Amino acid sequence: MDNVLSTQAPTREEWLGRASELVPVLRERAAWSEENRRLHDDSVAALAGAGVFRMRVPARYGGYECDTRTLAEVAAVIARGDGSAAWTAAVYWIPTWMASLFPDKVQDEVFATPDVRICGTLSPTAQAVPADGGVVLNGKWGFMSGAPHSHWQVVVAVRLEPGAQPMPVVGLVPMSDLRVVDDWHTSGLRGTGSVTTVAENVFVPEERLLPLPVVLEGRGGASKINADSPVYRPPLLPVAAASSVGTAVGLAAAARETFLEALPGRAITYTSYTSRREAPVTHLQVAEATFKADQAEFHAHRLTGLVDAKAADGSPWTPEERVRARADVGATARLAKESVDVLNAASGGSSIYSHVPIQRIARDVQALTQHALIQPDTNAELYGRVLCGLEPNTQYL
Fold first, then answer.
1. What distance in Å separates the CA atoms of residue 287 and residue 310, rounded to the nearest whole number?
2. What is the average per-residue pLDDT within 225-238?
3. Which long-range contacts (CB under 8 A, 24 or more apart) does 297-300 make?
């Protein structure tokens, strides 16, 4: 595969074929990525070569504007090789979509880089003070997945104007303007390189700033070409949920795959079962894990189906649909984790060795469920609140 821009978008089946070809490379580099707390350069090159980083780039810049069902299914396949690679790719898709809301002049600059990689956040943990022609940023942002290989970062800061209410704004900043703090020492998703970045008196020109409420609604200063594309019609949070949901599904599939690969010839120690595969308890465990994985996939498909259908017809989003998008990503993560946990517990004492993939898969899916916009209990509570007739208690919908 190469990086030559193509005007013809691959079909979903072709994308899945490309992703499948990546699995052996990513799997081979997964342990290195975990140990070094960032993706291996070979993994990044393989993802770029397959066109993964262009899946949400506007078509006029050589991108593919893929729907979210395709994103989810591609991420699920990638996660079979390395959960950190899948999560990082998914994170890149979201700020890339956000960058497509900015004025054409900004997009021309950002998308001039082949296979541009943009990390980002929605946390307003910095201040933006007015300056001639823009603002000066000071602050920091944590959990910046993919930062070590990024070209740009989407930042959120609170704009402080004299005599005006503080306003959260979204900005685009070159990674070269930020200081990286190597603080990603975690139990799971270690290969994502989700370090902290710091802005110290960084100037951001006005054209690279948008109000956060405008971005949350999926509106911006982009050209009519982007505005007319179905990809850019839904609001940000459902797009983000649908873009990131595939990693959880893929980790559940990876757990079952690695469990079944190790099954032949294994006994259950201190029992009469010389073959774990013949033990009824194993049958129950595999069935339970598969049911939960199937249920996780249902929620992922319902979520991407909703986002893609509303993108196609341009219909307005109801509050219930918005919170259901968050509920579905939370339910997907919870069920995927439960599926992985069943198989991890069934894998025996030898599975705790660091070279055995299932222990990394279990830690990765645990880390994923802790993400603030995925956390299952938080999202379920929000969904139930709206179902009970109350107003949502967050603007992140």
1. 35
2. 86
3. 297/249, 297/332, 299/245, 299/328, 299/329, 299/331, 299/332, 299/335, 300/72, 300/76, 300/245, 300/246, 300/248, 300/249, 300/328, 300/329, 300/332
- On average, the pLDDT of the chain sits at 95
Domain ranges of the chain: 12-114, 118-210, 236-387
Domain 12-114 has CATH 1.10.540.10: yes
Beta strands in 145-207 (DSSP E): 152-159, 167-174, 179-181, 195-205
Q: Quick one: pLDDT at residue 190?
A: 98
Phi and psi of 180, rounded to 5°? Answer: -100, 130
Q: What is the pLDDT of residues 154-203, one digit of tens each?
A: 999 999 998 889 999 999 999 999 999 999 999 999 999 999 999 999 99
Query: In CATH, which of 2.40.110.10, 3.40.50.720, 3.40.50.620, 3.30.420.10 is domain 118-210?
Result: 2.40.110.10
Signed CA dihedral, 329, 332, 333, 334: sign only:
positive
pTM for the model: 0.95
Superfamily of domain 236-387: Butyryl-CoA Dehydrogenase, subunit A, domain 3 (1.20.140.10)
Show the tokens assigned to 207. 């054209």
Q: Which residue has the tokens 């303007």?
A: 177
8 A C-beta contact, residue 9 and residue 62: no
Q: State residue 5's pLDDT score.
A: 44
3 state DSSP class of 198: strand
